[in-house]
Design a protein that fits this description.
It is built from eleven helices and 17 strands. With about 400 residues, it is α/β, with parallel strands linked by helices. It folds into two domains: about 180 residues, Rossmann fold, CATH 3.40.50.150; about 130 residues, Rossmann fold. Strands 6-5-4-7-8-11-10 form a seven-stranded mixed sheet. Strands 14-13-12-15-16-17 form a six-stranded mixed sheet, sandwiched between helices. A four-stranded antiparallel sheet has the order 1-2-3-9. The radius of gyration is 22 Å and the shape is globular.
Amino acid sequence: MKDISKIEYHRKTCLMCGSELKSEPLMILENMPRSAQDIPDEDEVSADSGIELRLFKCEDCGLYQFDCDPVSYYRDVIRAVGLSETMRNLRRSDYAYMIEKYGLLGKRFLECGCGRGEFLEVLSEFPVEVYGTENNAEFAESAKKTIGEDRIISSFPETENDIFFGGDFDCFLSFNFLEHQPHPTVMLKSMYNNLKNGGYGLITVPSFEYILKEGRYYELIRDHIANYSLDTLIRLCRDCGFEILESGYIGIGDTLRVVVRKAKTVGDTKASGDEETEELKRLTENYVLIKSAVKEFTDELENEGKRLCLWGAGHQGFTIASTTTLSQRAAYILDSAPFKQGKFAPASHIPIVAPEHFKDDPCDAILIVAPGYAKEINETIKRSFGNLKDKNGADINPPEVFKLSSDRIEKM
């Protein structure tokens, strides 16, 4: 059985620039999930408990970060969202744009952290050469079956001098992987050294500015040991030798996207002096507001004799469940990812089941706790649960559907 009990707090320096962190955290979050992916099963759930996360900000480079050790699997890419057609279409758009904009037709692409090859499979639809690295040997073998034996390597950039497939790539890709890294400069400098002169890179990470602006504390998770703003992401890329060609926000503003190019020299950079006190204040206020909103919501359902379940066994769902009354009120969590089904949400211990479970054990209300996919999930609910019948053939009322917002529960 894997060890799900150990967590250490020991780092006193910034993981991006190496400067000393302040002695006092800006915010402390209690009873948080230990991780988003080490989901306890029936044999492990009794040993699982919530943890404390302490948020710091580096005064020199501005990076928000946790002072704990990273999750044990930070080198692996575990990508349930790769199953989503929404995400696959986003990747198609990314690839088509990069290939046309930067003349990459027929060129060599390397994805650093390719998981089971979900996004490389989409890239292989285009006339380019596709390669990937993946630390997890099982995932790498799965990717090889889709992409090709000679195109995937089970490896991770442990040093900046690690070269993959002989290097000389035209473009590297990194999708929501950098925020997991306790040594982000090592990973980016390795990608730099694997590129041709003038080669490109496409990087995405979650936007901490979005989290601050919306007050979405439940987006915070130990897995994301680094919480980047656009300024800190740009600084990191420049410090690793890249020119910034494009930078901005995608999706609903919850994701940062930069396009970089290998430069000959490292440009001068300086930390942003912008203060984010008001935004952090909103985050802490919403930490309280959402707890109150969830309690009011679950109390109302309980008073009406209605059962509630959740949809979304991701880090947002795990956090919102463990830090609110959902841990006592939700019957189960629906999720489409098979590898999560049959396990239990960290800290809250709500069982995770397949969507088909709902047909045999229906609830009166479903709360969607995967904000970025609320529209897609709602359509699935309407399609799958709109015309259910009980064992006697009588119609079952469709469930009421709600979604999680920054500081409230909204009906869809």
